[in-house]
Amino acid sequence: MKPCTAFIFLCCCLFACSKPQYPLVEIKTDLGMIELEIYENEAPITAKHFLANVDKGIFAEACFYRVVHMNNQEGREIKIEVIQGGLFHDSIVDSMPTIRHERTDQTGILHKDGVISMARNLPGSASTEFFICVGDQPQLDAGGLRNPDGQGFAAFGKVIRGMDVVRKIQMQKEENQMLVERIPILSMKRIR
To answer: Are 116 and 159 in contact (CB under 8 A)?
Structure first.
């Protein structure tokens, strides 16, 4: 091997070895699998909370229940496209611990296509409900106008496999953004 070729080979090996090994979470539904990469270094509070919920089996009775697309946001000036999942029932969600809000201008994780983020009401009220972006959604970032407080939502990972499943879920029959038939999450587990 020539010295130049050997140097390039070594650099490629070092780059491949230095790529972070993020935790992976697999979501199984009747419509297919979704695989998530969780950015625990960039969004430590949110990622740790989500992974702890996965590890504790909190999502055993979870589902995807809300879909937002361009045709079901009448009267909204700022439109977004997402699917939302979690425990669904307010009585359960409200009893779960909440976490401090991590803004996108702190974490650097923007609401791009496939990014997973925490649903919330007020900043610091996120617990178990999450959403996945369909397409880029900059209005969900810090300073975005979708939420009147301008704090945005706490993004903490990304779909690395299964965006076709996410899009399938988004196209299911809905009424006022709520799925007519919720999509059960058959399992949600850490695979790395």
So the answer is: yes
